[in-house]
Amino acid sequence: MGRKWLADKNPMFLMAAIKLANNCSDFFSPTMLDKRIVETLTPLEWWKECQNCNLPQGLVKLTETLFNLPASSASIERSFSTLGNILTKKRNRLGIEKAEKLCYIYQTRKMYNIKRRCTRK
């Protein structure tokens, strides 16, 4: 599934991923594949350093985007739950902008109360 998605973005991205998996230096400089370099840099730093390599246009930007994705969807689920509590059958005519503001106020208040409880201890 991941390879198909990568190939759909740009077939050259898939080729670079395969070369990286095989430690082939067609796209990546041998220095960047050195074990000491790989162990000292974070993955995002490693990809940023690879901008100088012979990579397909846009691959580094794609990896930066992927690294910035949330690891879980818990915060999004909380937002939908809060929104579900705000938009009810009785409040079905509430506009999107007001619902968004109420959701923000509710979640901010909740975070404030949690922080306040933590500082009391």
Observed structural traits:
0% strand; mainly alpha; elongated; 2 domains; 7 helices; 121 residues
Notes on the protein architecture:
The structure is a single chain. Helix content is 65%, strand content 0%. With 121 residues, the chain is an all-alpha fold. It folds into 2 domains: 2-67, no CATH class; 74-120. α6 (74-86) crosses α7. The longest helix is centred in the C-terminal third of the chain and has 25 residues, at 96-120. The termini are far apart. The model has no long low-confidence stretch (mean pLDDT 79).
Question: Outline of this structure?
Answer:
Helix content is 65%, strand content 0%. It has 121 residues and is an all-alpha fold. 5% of the residues are buried.
Q: How many domains?
A: 2
Helix content: 55-70%
Outline: elongated
Counting helices, strands and paired strands, the structural category is: mainly alpha
Overall pLDDT confidence:
79
Which segments are poorly predicted (pLDDT under 50) over 5 or more consecutive residues? none
Count of runs of 4 or more consecutive helical residues: 7
Rg to the nearest angstrom?
Answer: 22 Å
Please state roughly what percent of the residues sit in beta strands, choosing from under 5%, 5-15%, 15-25%, 25-35%, 35-45% or over 45%.
under 5%
Largest beta sheet, briefly?
Answer: none
